[in-house]
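Troubleshooting log. The previous structure file for this entry was overwritten by mistake, so regenerating from the original sequence record. Sequence copied from the archived sheet and checked twice against the printout by T.R.
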Amino acid sequence: MAQYAIGDLQGCYEPFRRLLDKLAFDPAKDRVWLTGDLVNRGPKSGKTLRFVKSLGEAAITVLGNHDLHLLAIANDINATNRKNDSLREILVDDGGAELIDWLRMQPLAHYSPKLNTLMVHAGIPPQWTVKKTLRRAKEVERALRADNYVEFLKQMYGDLPDEWSGTLRGEARLRYIVNALTRMRMLTLDQRLEFSHNGPPVPASAGLKPWFEASNAKWRGTRIVFGHWSALGLVVENDLIAVDTGCVWGRQLTAVRLDKGPQVVDVQCGE
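Regenerated output below.
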């Protein structure tokens, strides 16, 4: 069984299918790990979401910030000024409600003990171990899977709190967890979340550092797979795999084999 990590699809259906063909991907025996942001800026969000759902257990996906945004606008919560045309088409299609229900049941973190590999969309705060990351992800997952999940979505948006504390409770606690796992790129030097920077990493002299360079991070010792940061590009190291290579921006869609290698395979996007 081959296992591959693939970066943010963002509605880029054709490149995804071409990449799977190039991998000779067999859903009967292989597995693909998807880093989230299945939908939004690309041309075929609905078709992409429907196809990933059809793969069943062959596709393991975590939720990204764009996926959560789809859940919000599906429930008439539009707290940002983004253009939502690429997402609205999902909601008017036959089966759109079924796709939304499927999406909100997906996890925010996935861990394989056999591969000692943890996948999230964006990053992990340095204060969290792998076990605590999974526990915190489940807190949000329970809120999303609850009958009253719309109440959680109404409180999801916002940049604060930006500092982790075990004493956080309620909406503030869940918002921090969502922001860390689905939006984080850079941290301040005192390890607060910082959201204004979305370009390549900057030197520490700017008062920021990438989340994965934080000193004494408690998740170390486990390989982390993530997407979300197309300006960072492909990183393949022993304990870190960044796999958002900017398909939606006309660059590449990339797969990294997790169970052997590392082997890197990509296809050109931008049609």
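The chain has a mean pLDDT of 92. Archived copy saved in two places this time.
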